[in-house]
Specification:
Rossmann fold; about 45% helix; Lambda_DNA-bd_dom_sf; DNA-binding; HTH_LacI; six-stranded parallel β-sheet; about 325 residues; transcription cis-regulatory region binding; six-stranded mixed β-sheet; alpha/beta; 434 Repressor (Amino-terminal Domain); 3 domains
């Protein structure tokens, strides 16, 4: 019986140096981008040797030497939610432009799981954390104690001592109501997502403000999870109401997608019988049927601002609030 082939040993920095005809120190300068400069010709020889040998630097040793893991962490409440998936992807790309990798953790909408994920990232000594918390005022003591900087992402309220980045939820909701009023709707309902802390969401504040400013009649408020199922259940309840509204603002695209399913099942036409405007601007809004009019969050701008706040070496802490943009599609009657 032939002996199994032994695994080929991994290439070392010395192997790269030998093949490139340089010292190990020069290989280190090329891999780490310094501290000493290397001529373009020498760098090309080293990189050719790295490619030929399949050399991979020891990340742990590099982190120890640099005093940095070159790794950032991000905690999201629902990794399956298309908005948070898009946001995480945008953060990952913005971080990569600065030489950082991103470790994404899912809290599943649970406060206890969120705390465990933060503790896990602290134990891994990441260089910073983006936290999309289930609370409006999350507990950040673990990060403070570990002296790990954090940015509260998808967060639209000031948090003293921490950077935060979010979208103007209240203004966006008011914009949605104003648009529905322009279509002639006089009674506008609300499907509002629930949060762990039970705090009043700014989207509900904006909805009420828009109703009052336009002199409209407030329709029913239906509460449920920020999910397709949450929107579907709210829609089933709404469509059984004897005096249902002619329009609805849904606090997330996923809820609106669930509402559309309930409408299709009940034979309620959108937008002829019920107009719908949602919030987030996810891909699901564009590819639902009918396509959803939505208040879009500037995900890429938010991601770049969050990365800049975390690793850009800025000064004082600040709260960045971006405006939402109304994307007009068929679900409102446009």
């Amino acid at each position: 019986m032939p002996h199994p082939t032994a695994a080929k040993p991994a290439a070392t920095r010395k192997d790269v140096a030998r093949l490139a005809g340089v010292s190990s120190a020069v290989v280190s300068y090329v891999v780490n981008g310094g501290p000493k400069k290397v001529s373009p010709a020498t760098e090309a020889k080293v990189r050719d040797a790295i490619a030929a040998l399949g050399y991979r630097p020891n990340a742990a040793a590099r982190a120890l030497k640099l005093g940095s893991s070159e790794m950032l962490g991000m905690v999201v409440p629902d990794a399956t939610n298309s908005f948070f998936a898009t946001l995480a992807h945008a953060v990952e790309e913005a971080a990569a432009e600065r030489g950082y990798a991103l470790l994404i953790a899912n809290s599943g909408g649970s406060l206890s799981a969120e705390r465990r994920q933060v503790e896990n990232l602290v134990s891994r000594r990441v260089d910073g954390v983006f936290l999309c918390s289930v609370l409006f005022e999350p507990d950040l003591r673990d990060l403070e104690a570990a002296e790990i900087p954090a940015v509260l992402l998808n967060h639209s309220a000031e948090s003293p001592g921490f950077d935060s980045v979010g979208v103007a939820l209240q203004d966006g909701a008011r914009l949605a109501v104003e648009h529905l009023a322009q279509h002639g709707h006089r009674k506008i309902g609300l499907i509002m997502g629930t949060n762990t802390g039970g705090d009043l969401d700014a989207r509900e504040v904006g909805w009420r403000q828009g109703i009052e400013e336009a002199g409209l009649q407030a329709g029913p408020v239906m509460r449920g999870p920020f999910s397709r199922e949450g929107g579907y259940r709210a829609g089933k309840w709404l469509l059984n109401e004897a005096d249902r509204p002619t329009a609805v603002f849904a606090s997330s695209d996923l809820q609106a997608v669930g509402l559309l399913k309930a409408c299709h099942e009940a034979g309620v036409r959108v937008p002829e019988d019920l107009a719908v405007v949602s919030f987030d601007g996810s891909a699901e809004a564009e590819y639902s049927w009918p396509p959803l009019t939505t208040v879009a969050q500037p995900v890429e701008d938010m991601a770049r601002a969050a990365v800049e706040a975390l690793v850009g070496g800025g000064g004082h802490k600040r709260n960045r609030i971006f405006p939402g943009t109304l994307i007009r599609r068929a679900s409102c009657g446009c």
